[in-house]
Design goal:
globular, alpha+beta, three-stranded antiparallel beta sheet, 316 residues, binds zinc ion, five-stranded antiparallel beta sheet
Length: 316
């Protein structure tokens, strides 16, 4: 990896830790938000800095049932949620314009229409000069009004590697790029915003791999999850985070896990569920096959209620 790329990873990571979003160019190229580099190739599209449409990086969530349900509910724009009716694309046909716009912002994006939804393949550069790129396989289920997506690193035509394994993946290995409770994105919202969120999520995985910690806010209400997944210098993800994990909950979490005492049944169930998810966290075989194009024709499965379990991540 070139020094310049490593430098950008460090700078953008530090920005995330300070609550500053990167700028995102067409193709999903991240550049530092507060200190744009020059010359900048490509057209700058979104600025997620402090004066932009969002004020802080998305909290990436854990896999607690509450978080998953909440994220699914918010992402689905189910009746009773606060999605703007004008924004909501109700059918596959309604998504056409949105998909065309996405294809201009993320060149190379392909769409595969189904009776009850659309599969998208979105290539994403993540950083200039990285040497490989991300690819997102996105299932937009219009009948359920839900989205699930999986991220992969792709180098050349043959090398494809799942982006994981982290509590910021759901149990089915899919992307957990934001906490649904924050209202960051809802079904029917801009697909470019969604792809940008995935681009930032992929960057944060890259940062974890290169620099050893997850940059920026994250959410994990479960003590066991924080103990297993958090580095001391990562931001704490408890309900009332205060700085790094080391300076917030780490000592008390570790002590409590060493001497757990009696657990309420709900907490015990939650821990068991987390342990199972963590142990089995990976994409379903059909997703791995699709992304590697192993089935040649890339036959995408139809969206049916039978696929709900794995499409929504509640398959375990
Ligand atoms: Zn904390």
């Amino acid at each position: 990896m070139e020094l310049e790329v490593k430098r950008h990873i460090q700078i953008i990571g530090q920005d995330f830790d300070q609550g500053i979003f990167p700028n995102i160019l067409d193709g999903g190229v991240l550049i530092p938000g507060a200190r744009p580099i020059a010359p900048v190739l490509g057209k700058e599209r979104g600025h997620y800095g402090q004066q932009s449409r969002q004020t802080e990086p998305p909290r990436t969530t854990g896999t607690s049932a509450a978080s998953a349900a909440s994220a699914a509910s918010a992402a689905s724009g189910a009746p009773g949620t606060s999605g703007s009716a004008a924004q909501v694309a109700c059918t596959t046909a309604d998504l056409e314009d949105e998909i065309d716009t996405l294809k201009r912002a993320y060149p190379g994006t392909q769409s595969y229409h189904q009776a009850y939804g659309v599969w998208l393949q979105i290539p994403c550069a993540v950083l200039h000069g990285l040497g490989y790129r991300a690819k997102f396989l996105v299932a937009l289920n219009t009948s359920l009004r839900q989205v699930s997506a999986w991220g992969f690193w792709e180098a050349g035509d043959v090398s494809v590697r799942w982006i994981g394994d982290r509590h910021t993946n759901y149990g089915d290995g899919s992307i957990c790029a934001f906490d649904g409770r924050d209202g960051t994105w809802q079904f029917g919202g801009s697909l470019i915003t969604l792809a940008d969120l995935y681009a930032m999520w992929a960057f944060r995985h890259l940062h974890l791999h290169v620099r050893g910690h997850w940059p920026g806010p994250q959410s994990a209400e479960r003590r066991l999850e924080r103990v297993y997944e958090f580095q001391p210098n990562e931001q704490c993800g408890c309900d009332t985070p205060s700085g790094t994990y080391e300076n917030c909950c780490m000592a008390k979490d570790t002590a409590a896990e060493l001497m757990p005492g009696p657990l309420e049944l709900s907490a015990m169930r939650s821990n068991i569920r987390y342990a199972l998810e963590r142990q089995n966290r990976r994409p379903p075989a059909v997703i791995a096959e699709l992304v590697s194009e192993a089935n040649g024709m890339q036959v995408f499965p139809e969206f049916t209620p039978n696929l709900v379990d794995w499409v929504t991540g509640n398959w375990i």
